[in-house]
């Protein structure tokens, strides 16, 4: 992990120094399951973007996803407890979008990662 909450980084923050992000804010905060949290947040961002672009109501989204409106509200407010990565991917498909998973060798210059890119 690059960055992260350490005593050294806290001292840097206290003096106003900039700490470079790893690209995963959850990892930078030292949270457990940071990779999964980041993946879920990116998938949810894609879902929220679709809802916004298509100007869908929460009621319409609830019908399309087969869930109740309070769960849609939770999704649109990034309250992702209880939503798995797989479930979020199924929701994207239910809203008429493809979800592609690409497995490839990583470059030697960095650690392996999971990346979500919304087109």
Alpha plus pi helix count = 6
User: From N to C, what is the helix and strand string?
Assistant: HHHHHH
Number of structurally distinct domains? 2
Calculate Rg over CA atoms.
Answer: 17 Å
**CATH-assigned homologous superfamily of the largest domain:** lambda repressor-like DNA-binding domains
Distance between the termini: 27 Å
Which runs of at least 5 residues are low in confidence (pLDDT < 50)? Answer: none
Which CATH-level-2 architecture of the largest domain?
Orthogonal Bundle
Please give the largest β-sheet: none
How many extended strands?
0
Might you state the CATH topology name of the largest domain?
434 Repressor (Amino-terminal Domain)
Shape, please?
globular
Give the rounded overall mean pLDDT. Answer: 89
How would you portray this structure in words?
- This protein folds into 2 domains: 1-32, no CATH class; 33-119, lambda repressor-like DNA-binding domains (434 Repressor (Amino-terminal Domain), Orthogonal Bundle), CATH 1.10.260.
- Helices cover 49% and strands 0% of the residues.
- The chain is built from 6 helices and no strands.
- It has helices at residues 7-14, 25-28, 34-53, 58-65, 69-76, 85-94.
